[in-house]
Amino acid sequence: MTKVMMYTLSTCPWCKKTKQWFNDRNIPFDFVDYDKAEKDEQKVIQDRVRKENLTLSFPIVYIDDKVIQGYSPDKYDEMMSKK
């Protein structure tokens, strides 16, 4: 089964659209709202993002071992169809 994990912001319209895209397709996902996370969890997220040469620009979507930054339904669809 495909594992989907997202880092989002609670107030970000693109993050909400991303969650809705996955919900509309009944694709389960986990997420962390970065702005609501504890400081130590934010640090873990920052470290992971930096390690992968990304910026803290949300949403950040992990589909298994691939990462897609930003709202990109075409890329989500492409990655999910490869599963």
CATH top level is: Alpha Beta
Mean pLDDT: 94
Low-pLDDT parts are none
Shape: globular
Widest sheet: strand ordering: 2-1-3-4
Tell me the CATH superfamily: Glutaredoxin
Biggest sheet statistics = 4 strands, mixed
Distance between the termini: 8 Å
Structure classification: alpha+beta
> How big a fraction of the residues is strand?
15-25%
CATH topology: Glutaredoxin
CATH architecture: 3-Layer(aba) Sandwich
Kindly describe this structure:
This protein has 83 residues and is an alpha+beta fold. The chain has a single domain, classed as Glutaredoxin. The chain contains three helices and four strands, in the order βαβαββα. Strands 2-1-3-4 form a four-stranded mixed β-sheet, with helices on one face. The longest helix has 13 residues. The protein is globular, with a radius of gyration of 12 Å. The termini are close together.
Which secondary structure elements does this structure contain, and how are they paired or packed?
Layout: E1 4-8, H1 13-24, E2 30-33, H2 39-51, E3 60-63, E4 66-69, H3 73-81
Parallel strand pairs: 1-2
Antiparallel strand pairs: 1-3, 3-4
Give a short summary of the structure.
This protein is an alpha+beta fold. The protein is 41% helix and 20% strand.
Question: How would you describe this structure in keywords?
Answer:
Glutaredoxin, 3 helices, single chain, 41% helix, alpha+beta, 4-stranded mixed beta sheet, 83 residues
